[in-house]
Amino acid sequence: MSPVKKLFIGLTAMIALVTLLLVQQVRRANSITTRAKALPIISSQTVDIPLDKTDPILGNPGAPLTLVEFVDLGIAEARNLHITLATFVSEHPREVRLFFKDAPNSGIFSSNATLAHRAAFCAGKQKNFWPFVGKVAENSANIREANLKKIAADLKLNSTDWWACTQASEAGQKMEAATTLFKSSSTGAAPVLFVNNKRVNLSEDIDLKQMLGSFIAK
Q: What is the pTM of this model?
């Protein structure tokens, strides 16, 4: 056998061996599954969220368990979270207080819910904040102007004063201040929930009412 032929056979065998090793490495790599580090259900970091007497409060103002929800009424997850929290407070009216914080997204891909938040703020001027928000949260279509006006009528608000309020600068300034607070207190988009100033990891599949109930049981 000529030296050239021997060299050719040797190179062919080497290439085949290298190819086999590469295939094995690829298969081994594909068989390895990586998992992101799981975040705790409740963050260990405490966030100082400013609360004052102008904030809507549901439940007992002096309750030991404080819930703060940042809500975009145009997002289904935020509406569902609000309904769950409001129900929980109604079941534990003495042990829990719930603060509502506006967090409507006003960007290009926003839910266009700013008017609904203004409308709820103005319903609060007539002592109907929580009933109004509860009605809006029932359906995604309720952030539309016509539906907001129907909710106001159903709650027997002074419609003229209420609508004028939604268009006034006070409501606009309220939303601007709320947006600034949300950006300074949290990352990402609404909904966001804090329990006694610690953020809840809502991405986990948890029984929220059961988890909150464990705080009351302590």
A: 0.78
* CA–CA gap between residue 177 and residue 163 (Å, rounded): 21
For the chain, what's the residue count?
218
42-217: CATH topology is Glutaredoxin (3.40.30)
Report, in angstroms and rounded to the nearest whole number, the Rg of the chain calculated over CA atoms.
Answer: 27
Euclidean distance between CA atoms 116 and 191, whole angstroms: 16
pLDDT (tens place) for every residue of the chain, 218 residues total: 666 555 556 657 667 665 766 656 656 655 544 444 455 788 888 989 988 778 899 999 999 999 999 999 999 999 999 999 999 999 999 999 999 999 988 655 455 799 999 999 999 999 999 999 999 999 999 999 999 999 999 999 999 999 999 999 999 999 999 888 888 887 778 899 999 999 999 887 888 989 899 888 76
Q: How far is Cα 191 from Cα 115, in angstroms, rounded to an integer?
A: 18
CA distances from 55 to 4, 73, 103, 218 (A): 88, 17, 13, 27
